[in-house]
Amino acid sequence: MTSTVEQTLTTIGPDDVEALARGAAVLGTGGGGDPYIGRLLATQALREHGPVPLVAPADLPDDATVMPVAMMGAPTVMVEKTPSTERIGAAVAALAEYLDVTPTHIACIEAGGVNSTFPLVAAAQLGLPVVDGDGMGRAFPELQMVLPTLAGIACSPMSIADEKGNVGVLTTVDNHAAEALARSLTITMGCAAIISNYVMTGAQARDALVPGTLGLCARIGHRLARVRAEHGDPVAAVAEELGGRVLHTGKVTDVSRRTVTGFARGTAIVSGPAGELTLEFQNEHLMAVCDGVVQVTTPDLIVVLDTDTGEPVTTEALRFGHRVTVLAAPTDERWHSPGGIALVGPRYFGYDTDPVRFDARESA
């Protein structure tokens, strides 16, 4: 079926992908890879193999075998090195063969950019349904930074595949070790690889995933298109869908970006009537500071939108002169637990500040 804003998304076909990819780029908080590339690959796979069913986590059988699939690496690299669609399904197949299991469902490990659309490619190729949920409710840069880690689910065994046909399976002592070893392999593979990890039962997925994120992505994307067609305020529409608010509006006056150890790291300055807002990012936007005062930090969402169109702007697409609006929005409450802050709080990323939570009561 073809989705609309009013309908519940139960099947994903080629006509749904544009809206879903746009909404995923919003939740990706600047990371997760280029949504345009992800949209092209998913649309191609769905046209070739047919639509895929979308299953709510609550409807998963206890004994389901849920296998996430994602891209690992620097989003800046993928702009120049488009992944092979065959590698996406191959990563799942290699891990299933190693574990001697038959996958029943494909899942997203993060809601953002290509990593909300690559699972559609694998699902279409393998003839499997996709879970309407993800492991973060947003995007984060490292493998262990998922709610399944907080739920005690192991990242490995995990598979990793590159565009040349190299495929490997890692078994590691813990999820942090999986990140370190897979990151080294990803760098060797050209700073971009396809992975499958965090294999879960249906019961585990119901407990560990954020439900409804693909449906939310599609809803955001469809609403953006409708509001623009009606000459409304697209930024306000996104803020309402996220339960967020505007932090800052202005023009990008400086961007410093580099690819280091497989990450796109950098700083962007947005200058506007309210002063200068500095965005600190490592693949994703992690901290927003206005005139020296921290406004919001990870794990809450920091989203950059084109002021006129409401289109999400990824960290690799930020350019001097771009007129943008920065939103803040709340994340899944589990991220604000002590374990969640230890995994994804600002100090983990090297910023000398305690977490500053989104506050809807503050004025824009």
TrEMBL record:
* Transmembrane spans: none
Q: Where is the S-Me-THD N-terminal domain?
A: 15-171
Q: Which domain of life is it from?
A: Bacteria
Q: Which positions carry the signal peptide feature in this UniProt record?
A: none
Residues in S-Me-THD-like C-terminal domain copies: 174-355
Q: What is this protein called?
A: DUF917 domain-containing protein
- State the organism's lineage: Bacteria, Bacillati, Actinomycetota, Actinomycetes, Pseudonocardiales
